[in-house]
Amino acid sequence: MVEQKAAASRLWAVVPAAGLGSRFGAQLPKQYMSLAGKTVIEHSIAALLRCDELSGVVVALHVDDKIFSGLPCANNAKVMQIVGGAERSESVELALAGLSAAADQDWVLVHDAARPCLSDQDIQALLLRAREHPVGGLLAARVVDTVKRASSQGEAVATVDRNDLWRALTPQLFRYGALRDALIHCRERGLPVTDEASAMEYIGGRPLLVEGSHRNIKITYPDDLTMAAFFLAGGVNV
C-alpha cells in the first residue's frame, strides 16, 4: 500500500476593515484616507500581496462600504470581499467562514487595514518563526517608553516595569482551525477580544512574540498619516 503524502498547508490573509475609525475624527474611515498616492488600505493589502505564497486575502467591510470595490486592489484575483461585523473579532470570524477553500491546518495572517507600513522583512520573519511554533505568533515591539499607571483622576500613581511589556502589532499568524475555534469560544462566552492573540490566549495558547519594526504603525490619529508617509518615502520594504 502506497502512503499518500499529506497536502501542504496553505497561507491566507484576513484584513478586518469594517470599522469607521471614530478616534480619527474624520468623516472618511481612516483606511480610506490618502497616503502617498494611494489609500491607507491599499498599502496594507499590497504588503500582503507581495508575499508570493499567499493563496488569497479576505477583506471584511462595513455593510454600507461603497469605496473598496472601486479601488484597484479590489480587482486582484487573490482579493475577496465579505461583509464584516460590529467588532473586529466578529469581522475576522466572518472572514474565516468565507474562506471555504481553507483547511484547518492552513495558516492565516490577520493584518490591520490601517497598518500601511508593513515591511517584507517583517512578514518573512513572522512566517519563518511563528510557523515553527505550536501555537503561532504575532509581530510585536518592545515597549521603550516609561509606562505609568493612572488614577481615575488622571494622576500618575505608579511606574510600571516595562521589561516584559510588548506592543502587539499585526500581522498575527495562526492555524485556520485553531483561530476559528478560539474566536467562537470567546464569542459564546462574551470574552473581550482585542486581537487574535488574545483569543488564542483565552483557550490556553501562548503565541510567540516576533520582534517587528517600530515603523509598522497603525493609523489612529491624523498625525499618524504624516509619520506613515515619511516611512513609506524611506522605503519600508528595503
TrEMBL record:
Query: What's the family?
Result: Belongs to the IspD/TarI cytidylyltransferase family. IspD subfamily.
Enzyme class comes to: transferase
Q: Which NCBIfam families match?
A: ispD (TIGR00453)
Pathway membership, UniProt: Isoprenoid biosynthesis; isopentenyl diphosphate biosynthesis via DXP pathway; isopentenyl diphosphate from 1-deoxy-D-xylulose 5-phosphate: step 2/6
* Function of the molecule: Catalyzes the formation of 4-diphosphocytidyl-2-C-methyl-D-erythritol from CTP and 2-C-methyl-D-erythritol 4-phosphate (MEP).
Q: What is the lineage of its organism?
A: Bacteria, Pseudomonadati, Pseudomonadota, Gammaproteobacteria, Cellvibrionales
In Swiss-Prot or TrEMBL terms, this protein is called 2-C-methyl-D-erythritol 4-phosphate cytidylyltransferase
Q: Which organism is it from?
A: Zhongshania borealis
Q: Which domain of life is it from?
A: Bacteria
Residues under site feature: Transition state stabilizer? 23, 30
| PROSITE patterns, sorted | ISPD
Q: Which gene encodes it?
A: ispD
Pfam families assigned to the protein according to its UniProt record, in alphabetical order: IspD (PF01128)
